[in-house]
Amino acid sequence: MDRERLMKMAGSVRTGGKGTMRRKKKAVHKSSTTDDKKLQSTLKRIGVNTIPAIEEVNIFKDDMVIQFVNPKVQASVAANTWVIAGTPQTRKLQDILPGIINQLGPDNLDNLRKLAEQFQKEMPAGEAGAAQADDDDDVPELVAGETFEAAAEEGQKE
């Protein structure tokens, strides 16, 4: 193309300047850091302190548990405020129960027994039969005079 013709076409394209309409509102792009700064300033005003060395936080909700592994925990007892920051995982109570039994106190064990009874009542009969059928891997009961090796050999023959 001719250079003069190209300059003529470039001159006719106007992105702003004399006679163009002004922008009425400036587009403000909010970032998540501003929200985080506002939250941190509010927490600082409440008087929240960081609690170190917490490995796990479990929040129990019906039969589901919201679990945080290695969270950042902050608390203010005066304001009755607890802040838990981290990546949550939603799990079933039955899945994490064996790992948290040693963390429960004596008063919580009664609640745990009630929950266990409730789950057994809710489990349909078909699932209960299937659960009993899976118990084949258990160690067989020994009769007086028998050894473990003899019982294991009998189990393999069957």
TrEMBL record:
Q: From start to end residue, where is composition biased (Basic residues)?
A: 20-29
Q: Which UniProt key words apply to this protein?
A: Transcription, Transcription regulation
- Residue stretches making up the NAC-A/B domain: 33-97
Region annotation (Disordered) ranges: 1-38, 120-158
Q: Which InterPro entries match?
A: BTF3 (IPR039370), NAC_A/B_dom_sf (IPR038187), Nas_poly-pep-assoc_cplx_dom (IPR002715)
Subunit composition and interactions: Part of the nascent polypeptide-associated complex (NAC).
- Family of this protein: Belongs to the NAC-beta family.
Write the protein's name.
Nascent polypeptide-associated complex subunit beta
